[in-house]
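Um, can you check?
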Amino acid sequence: MDRRKFFSDGLRDLFRDLMQSPVGRAVDRQLHGISNVLDPRGLDYMIEQSQPRDPLPEDHYARPPGALPDPDAFEKACTKCGDCETACPYGTIFQLDFRSGPLVNPESVPCHLCVDYPCIQACQEGALLPLQADEVPRFGQARLVQENCVNHPNNKYQRRRDSAGRQRHCTECKQACPVQGVVKYNAQKFPQFADFCTGCGLCAAACPALSIAIRIDPDIELTETE
């Protein structure tokens, strides 16, 4: 075996394991929070990707959990005080400017669907309302970029190995998904995302692919900010 390849593969696996450990996830969460302050569009906009991103309308983002569904009603109720933004422990909520009000771009910084939704609790104006017990917010729909998926045959070098050193198929997106049954795998081991996906972005954040393999297509009717 090539010694250089042996060490490079070992370091890559070690780094991937570190970032997917509780400590690594905590560090990643803090970095996302810091980057959200530096650039409200999130870390992915600050780091040049290895390939061009699909064009997405810059003015199409999601509102925070519990947002009034009617855009006009939300605009009237929201004072743009920033309390929900401050309350979010993950740096998910941001404002583009003083006119935009609170926004979410889950493809860049995911919503963790907090049990107590501190963003909703922080809103005193009624722009964000408590969710029903079995209700989850909807931001968009996860979509696979198949050629970038770790399970694609061309990307098998990115796969993690088991204790015996054998490459194993990736299931990180399914493990990260907070809604049971959303992620299933086809015969080629590619993830398929059900239409009741929330678009929270946790699968995209957990994806270990070197190039973006999971996109979050926004629900346009829910994300109009004009």
In short: Residues 40-59, 222-226 have pLDDT under 50 and may be disordered. Residues 76 and 127 are 8 Å apart (CA to CA).
